[in-house]
Design brief:
heterodimer, A: about 140 residues, alpha+beta, 4 strands, B: about 450 residues, Aspartate Aminotransferase, domain 1
Chain lengths: ~140, ~450
Amino acid sequence: MEIDELYQTIILDHSKRPRNFGELPPPAAKGEGYNPACGDEVVVFIARSPEGKIEQAKFVGQACAICMASTSLMTTRLKGKTTAEALDLKRAFIDFLTKDAPPAEGLGNLQAFGGVKKFPLRLKCATLGWHALQTALNGEGHKRL
Amino acid sequence: MRHPSNGPRQTYTSTSAAEDRAGCNERLTGGCLDVSTDLLAQKYRADFPILEQRVNGHPLVYLDNAASTQHPMCVIDEIARYYREDHANVHRGIHELSSRATRLYEDARAQIARFIGAESQDSIIFTRGTTEGINLVATAWGSARLRPGDVILITEMEHHANLIPWQILARRTGALLQYLPVQGDEGSIDWSLLERRLQEAPVRILAFTHISNVLACLNPANEICAIARKNGVLTLVDAAQSAGHAPINVQEIGCDFLVFSGHKCCGPTGIGVLYGNRAILADMEPYQFGGEMISRVTYETAEWKEGPHRFEAGTPHIAGAIGLAAALAYLDGVGRRAIQSTDHRLGQIGYQKLSTLPGIRILGPRNDRAGLVSFQLGRIHAHDLVAYANEFGIALRGGHHCAQPLMRKLGLQATARASFYFYNRESEIDRLIEVMQTSIRYFGV
């Protein structure tokens, strides 16, 4: 089925059993993402080491399978990254979903979201958690799509 | 206007002609003639060529009628015919085409007045749709009349279109926006408390939906408006979900305003109707200013036309009005009582069959429901469910249905919604159930 391209096994797995689901207490940075079109909400928490490297990333939220899986997979990819590296990964992921160019190196299992290209209405679902991440990293607190 | 029986009937191959034949046996129950659920689909579905297509390799099952209904060929043909033969700008034109277009446009107004039982065509204002109709009333009636402390009363089940214009009006005038609460998943409103509410507070207008686009409940408009009128409160009925689905008579309802959209009753998008009590309309300031609505202009001043034209600034959606009139003539040809009973039966069957699915939560009343069902299936997000259904050619809607406060009150972010019209078949509900069953396995929740 064409829809299997959208709902790849790894996506269904992460949506059913999201990794790193939960909150982090302050002083962890917090970024909220809200999609008014569907009511989806995710909140991303980032704990950084004194050197500024991401030590832990967690999230909570209520959202569709694409959004939950994208945010869950994202949290598994952030450990040890600097803010700049994390934002580079975000940019590479969004470019991958929105541009025709071949996927950037290092995208790895995030390429599972390639099916979203055929379902442009779901683009916001796949990127909501990443926008929340940027908000957390920039210390803006709240991001509305 | 062409009547469906003599309109252009094209022959399309039905995907389930055998089911149609099987379903057309009429049966007697309790002494009443209980016609089959598919009777209207069998007679009229072929008028809607858009329905006969495949989506993702499956026959299209169109269950998004509460968002927009489809168009019979006679409506599409009439709009094309108008553009081909009669189009020009309306009013003030002396030439032949302008006078034809004007006559068709004003005939459409008269026909719509008859369709909703209005006392005069002068009480019919063309709008872009339900939303604009409510905004017009809130602005043109409300801005000049409401004083700080006055109360605007609506219900907790309103669509954003019947909520935000009142919020803004309250903010502008200092009036208070108050709500009649909904209770439980059934979302019922205890209307017996209405009279006390109207007597306790200085309520100026009561605006409520005739049929909820989320809950599918039918609000008793006649009784509500009678109580309001007795207490000197104006009423606005949001008939977006009822005008194409049931006989509507504004004089029997006893409302002061009633609004609906053309595209939810087989008409075009971008055209809708505001019915207003003529005495109240006569006392209202214009809504927008410009061509079509003025009578006399100098560089310093302007005067407005009387009647509905005062509220129709700019060149109107002429083809839309003509197309809507064709649509309403078509619905009258099908029979609005027959449409109503078919829609309600499809809604009831949809409710019953969906309720057999494990983990389903259905909103709205168990009985006496309109032809739509909103539901949450286990922990599957509505958008995933709708995407999955689309893979099998089924058109559902998922989301908050422009009723965010209601969804929040019910503790939901989003639901999936199947909404029916007289051209749907019972077998399409069965198809929906099959696909919902496999979705539970697919998403594994």
